[in-house]
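So, could you explain the following?
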Amino acid sequence: MPTYTPQPLYGGAIQGIIPEGWIDASTLREIPDHQELYLSPTTLSSLIIELNQPVPNPVAQATLHAHPRLLSGTSPQPGHAPDQEALNRAAALHHLLDICDPADTLAILQPPARVALPRFAGEVAAYAGRVGFSSPLGGGRASLQQQQQRRPQQQRVVAGAPEAGAGAGSSEDQAGTGTTTTQCWFLLVRLVEQETDLLVLVNVPEKEFVERGDAAGLRREIEVGEGVVAELVRGLEVVEWGLFA
């Protein structure tokens, strides 16, 4: 069963949680100031925490309008504007589209759902879910360095992609279609007064497990991905709010 350990982030201003033994990438290479990056020592999995500018409501509404069937229950009735809850969920989608490589297809496996953060005072809008990035074999999915260079762009998006076992697609399916999938668990915390969207991404590329036929290893890695977000929901805490000044 995966184990996790408390981890100070942004110089201790935020208290987070990481899988035990994961490596702080800032000890290996330069990481942007707004970002924290942790790497698995044994696989290609990664954990990214970002402090981003918030997605404005008009941009979230445009994202919702561009993909009306993607986020179930968020599309407003004709002639009615979406409520803030729908816009918040669309903001999560916008962040995910923003890190998508042009050759990728984004599948919503678990739509963003409201979660409660017990270590935050008052009501904070936070959303967790899971997506799959399908990439052509031999290219497509952006590297971590490319993900850090965030840029908006139009992407292909599909809703309700089938799940084969614990993954977004079986190894046979992926081999047959010439694609590979990276599973991504996400947590979006909308800090309105601080004008910040705190975004957590846990990426688990399936390719290395598929190539060696390691279904059990993939299942274990999926448990890690699911567990990181669940542990952060329980334990994420801002210690020094001056970080956002």
Summary: Helices lie at 57-66, 84-98, 144-148, 171-177, 207-211, 215-235. The radius of gyration is 17 Å.
